[in-house]
Amino acid sequence: MSDRVSGRPRRVSLTSRIALAFGVLALVAGPAAPIVGAAGALSISTPYPSIVGEPGSTATFKLTLAATPAATVSLSADGVPSGWASRFRGNGTVIDSVYVANSSPTATTVPDVEFSVDIPSNAAAGTSTMTVHANAGTIQQSLQLSVRVESAASGSVALTADFPQQKGTSSSTFTYSLTLKNDTPTQASYSFNVQGPNGWTTTIKNASSDTATNVQVPAGSTGSLTVSVTPDPNATAGDYPVVATVSGGGKTAQVNLTVTITGSYSVSVSTPDQVLSTTANAGTEKDFVITATNTGTAPITKVQPSATAPTGWTVTFDPASVASLAAGSSNNVQSFTAKITPSSDAIAGDYIVTMKVAGAEASGSVDIRVRVETPQYWWIAGVVLLLAVFVGLGWVFRTYGRR
Predict the structure, then answer these.
(1) Is the pLDDT of residue 31 over 70?
(2) Average pLDDT value for residue range 15-42
(3) Which pick of 18, 338, 341, 370 has the fewest CB atoms within 10 Å?
(4) pLDDT score, position 137
(5) Higher pLDDT, residue 201 or 297
(6) Domain identity same for 202 and 304
(7) Is there a single domain that holds both residue 191 and residue 234?
(8) What's the confidence (pLDDT) of residue 39?
(9) Is the pLDDT score of 390 beyond 60?
(10) 330 within a domain of the structure (yes/no)
(11) Which pLDDT value is given to residue 15?
(12) Residue 371 contacts by C-beta under 8 Å, 6 or more apart in sequence?
């Protein structure tokens, strides 16, 4: 007879009992937590965790940060040797933290964060290990870095100029573009200096910043400098050396520049006695001497005098031209005789005649005041006429007065 017919309770299977037990446990424990926690994920890495540097240089590590979800990540470092300076930079600015935006469903990275340490110039050879820490809330990740100091790291530093030799007058300003090549395994900061002849003005600057006193050049990269040279205005023709020097990372480089002065050109026009006036009669030639002085530092060639005078006047010169006018304290003055002839109908008064002396390289001019006077023969003619009148009157009185 079956259990149902007999009225006795049916036995519960073993499988049912196990399922019932797990169900009770689930009710007691509550709902299960999700597999991915709300804290998210954080990572920090670098492609080159070990760098070789030399005393006086800067070792720089490029860091890559990734976070899920978006987070502000604080940065710190320990293990930095005593006397070494360390810093974090983001886009060229010193930072303490970086915000990693959640721009993708998984993670986003920040590739432009750098950690750099300045190796003192007296640092001993050896390897130093440091640890960089990244913190985002309760999540922390660390990255171990090392710097091996060598007394003379491989590579070299070179300083070159696009155009090391330039030519011009002493009144010119010369500009040189320099390229600094850091062919060493580490980034370095370089100071710069330029030296020129006494009395000259020389400046050197970072091509990208007028106020920077140094230039940072990454390993295997280049930097740009600009040199400006202003000669002494009295510098004579010749070649003058200018030396630009850079120092950093335990290395020094320099480039020799040359300024070729062709001389300055200027002419001063005056008179032997510095009197800038004369007198003349209408229609009568008058000689007037002017002087041309080479006040520059180089010869002036094809020197020729000329004049601008009132309408109807003529001005000629003797000599009409000279081949050259020397520079210096002697033989630098040339005299010209100007033959000034006012027009025959010029009335008495003051007139201006501009005297100019021009060469192939420079020119100068001066204004001369010419006072036109009545010719003396008109006075003589007037006196003769008056005498003739008096003589005629006397003859008339003598002849007809007795009648």
Answers:
(1) no
(2) 45
(3) 18
(4) 86
(5) 201
(6) no
(7) yes
(8) 46
(9) yes
(10) yes
(11) 46
(12) 277, 278, 279, 280, 349, 350, 351
**Which residue among 261, 293, 317 closes a domain?**
261
Domain hosting residue 171, numbered range: 156-261
**Residue 364: inside a domain, yes or no?**
yes
Last residue of one domain, picked from the residues 261, 278, 295: 261
Q: With contact defined as beta carbons under 8 Å apart, do 74 and 134 qualify?
A: yes
The total number of structural domains in the chain stands at: 3
- Tokens found for residue 314: 């003529």
Structure token pair of residue 169: 């007058």
Q: Kindly report the CATH number assigned to the domain that includes residue 200.
A: 2.60.40.10
Q: Based on the domain organization, do 194 and 135 belong to the same domain?
A: no
In a domain, 126, yes or no: yes
Does a structural domain hold residue 382? Answer: no
Among candidate residues 76, 77, 63, 66, the one with its CA nearest the CA of residue 40: 66
Q: What's the CA gap between 12 and 78, in Å, rounded?
A: 66
The C-alpha atoms of residue 127 and residue 124 are separated, in whole angstroms, by 9
Share of the chain above pLDDT 70, in %: 84
What pLDDT does 283 receive?
Answer: 92
